[in-house]
Amino acid sequence: MTAFITQTFGSYIAEEALARVPSDVFDRSKLCLLDSLGCLFGGRQLPTAGMLRNLRGDSQVAPSSGGPVSGCAEPAAAAFVKATLINALDFDDIYEKGHPGATVIAAALSVAEHTKSSGTEFLAAVIIGYEVSCRVGISLAHVQPRKAIHGHGTWQIFGAAAAAARLMRLDAGRAAHAIAIAAANAPVASVMKTVYGDAPSMAKNNFGMAAQMGVLAARLAAAGYEGPLDVFEGETGFWRMAGADECRFDKLTKGLGDAYEILRVGFKPFSCCRLILSSVQASRDVIRMAGIDPADGLHAKLIVTAPPIVCEPPFCKVRPRDMWAAQFSAPHAIAMAVFGVEPGPDWFVDDWLHDEIAGRFQDSIELRPHTSHASPRGAHAASAWLQLRDGQIFERHVDVAEGEASNPMPKSALEGKFLRLASPVVGDSGACEAIDKVYALDKAGSTLCRPGGRTVGTPVPKAGRKHACYGHRANPMENSPCPALVEQRLWSTARDFQLADATSWSAVSHRHCHPTSLPVNSGSAAKAAVPVGIQFNPCIDVRLRERTKQISDHGLGPSMYLHRIDAKGETSSDSNPVLRFGLRSNSLPRRAARTGCRDT
Domains of the chain by range and CATH? Predict the structure, then answer.
């Protein structure tokens, strides 16, 4: 008798041998974890985190004989919180469809807290979760150009269930029932209302419920609860429940355990919907090519040719009023990128959502749909056409956006993304420690826990945080817990700070600034271009050695951090970075002036 698909999945979940997993798959799983953790830390900086904190607090559990960490939240509720926050910025990983990491990583972190799994066991669960989740996702085929029923959370529940089942060490039979229970309890495919309705809402992809129910499905299966093992088969199978037009059954199990879908996962350089990444990149690049300040109004026209869906609501929305609408607004994302705002929480602060100059720039963008044959390589390809008032014309076409699996983000840039998102939450040393832990997870004796029982995704209590005082006048390198962090902060992250002609460098602010001291001597050309009120410390010479060259080879430029200083000119010991200056060609001194820098 042929096994049901749930049973094939169950056998894979329970019996996948770690020795069979290629090293590049393990390496990719670490990057997936790093990216999702960064997005989780970024999400913790949003107001949404405060709402969800109460949910986590209401579900604390005591340790049992099985050894869960004392004081941990109930794993299903914890998975809801983590998945929601990972996806909150729309900065999380991308695949052929969906954001598989939000549900897989959230479930794995939450369950691992209770099972005290080793690092290798955790990574194996992550890989298995991605494989099951992604395969179900690509099996759901839509032959109509615009889907009437659509929802990634509906199928991403399987990644959460698979990861949880592996970490709970369920046998093949119990794991099969975990998948079946998940199918019967998957979230409704609601994206046509939660995103494409009157206005995008914080419910979005419903990943929180998908992760929560996936963990519950594994726990129910462990307790003996059963689901319909034939749930994928036939004309009434899961594909029909999920709103697909047909099911490509071969995608579900063909090559399972041999061909790894996790290798087709990419990472976003911008905090916006994947559909508009190419439009944002093309627009950012064409403004750079022109060498203009977008706040000056020197351009007469910016035409962005993009997939037809980008030219329709909610993607064509100009001047969105909240972060949920802004994540799906191509004009807003383009404005943030060309104005040099750091992707992440800063894109959605009220100051930028209601900024009149940025709003006027959005008004100047014209979105035009391209024809289906416009780009044979990239389904989301886009072009930007810029005309200046003096008649000059610049064009840029992007077939495959940065960050897609076929055009991957450099590892150094992914690490920089993590450091930017994590440092405000866990401090500089905590962010460095998290990277080291992630990369060492498959080493002998490695665990997910910090001293005291916290997993790498858990913030350090505020009183225990220590921030590196890179802005300290005497010797900002003296107390640095991680010298590599300086290199990351100066020379990593997004390509919106591209090295250009040194004589035209100037500073552009990304946060409201205070009287500050710039802790790096970047040369006289850069020094001369810095607005009044920004001071260079001439005693510091940061030598970036070979790593600088490697990062520069990717076209990345410097990014500088400023810290609060007190009346004596000293950096506060608990200060977070409050301002970042990116050095780039003809950037925006007006932005620095408009956001609070004072003459001295």
Answer: 23-262 (1.10.4100.10), 274-398 (3.30.1330.120), 411-448+464-594 (no CATH)
